Amino acid sequence: MDNSLINAVKSIFREDRRHALANTMGETPLRVDQSLDAIIPILLVALQRKDKNQLQSILMKAEARFTAQDPPLPSTTSIDTTAISANAEQELLEDITANNSAYISDSLHQYLGIEGANVHTLVIAVLPAIFSAISKGGQQWDVDYVKGLLDNNQDDFLAQVPADLAPVVVNTDGDSGLHNSVPPATPADAIVDPTHTSPPQHATTEPTPVHTPESVKKATKNKGIWWLLILVFIVALWVVFGRGCTGQSSTETATDTSTVQ
């Protein structure tokens, strides 16, 4: 996927400059091209993930440091000047990567298969090219403009980062907000068959019994009826068995009287 901003950065590295970089590092131009394809989007993502205050500070340093549109090539002709430039650019790199430049360089070294020192040389060479592209050749350093430009191209930047270097992108700043670009892993127990539709489950709740004065009165009334029935039953038993015993006693008395006569 092509991106105009990434292409603008790459276009600054003309063929003659890529060959010069390759000769300086002892690498092939093809290897330099492959390295630039990985380094450029990583640094752009790191810049895009800065807040306005952080980006403003970086832009001020970059504007003071870079005055030409084309990036300077690594040179050993002026040791003092090179040392001063290297220190300024290294400080700028640490600001961009939140002091993770060593980790990023090591990851690029393992991925690209080139010397760590050469990786660092390429990263430093990319910096002025990036700032030239995002500032319209050094003419537009307004933080709102640059932030908007970077935000609008965020998805393309991420798409250009090789998959094996995704952890490098996550570690380009110190806060946890950077992890938003990495989708969270889905737990195994959360994976369901999308074709399966379960009927809605309606929970049923047993009503809580409420003792109203009416229900209490009704219960008391029912209890009184039972006591009355028991009392009637006892009276009935007394009448039946009591009368039987009385009749028998009267008969025996009559018999005894006739015998005496």
UniProtKB/TrEMBL annotation:
- The membrane spanning regions, by residue number, are 224-241
Lineage of source species: Bacteria, Pseudomonadati, Bacteroidota, Sphingobacteriia, Sphingobacteriales
Name-wise, this protein is DUF937 domain-containing protein
The entry's keywords: Membrane, Transmembrane, Transmembrane helix
Which spans does this entry mark as compositional bias, Polar residues?
Answer: 195-207
Q: Does the keyword Transmembrane helix apply?
A: yes
Q: Where is this region: Disordered?
A: 176-216
Species of origin: Sphingobacterium paludis
One of this protein's Pfam families, by short name?
DUF937
InterPro entries on file: DUF937
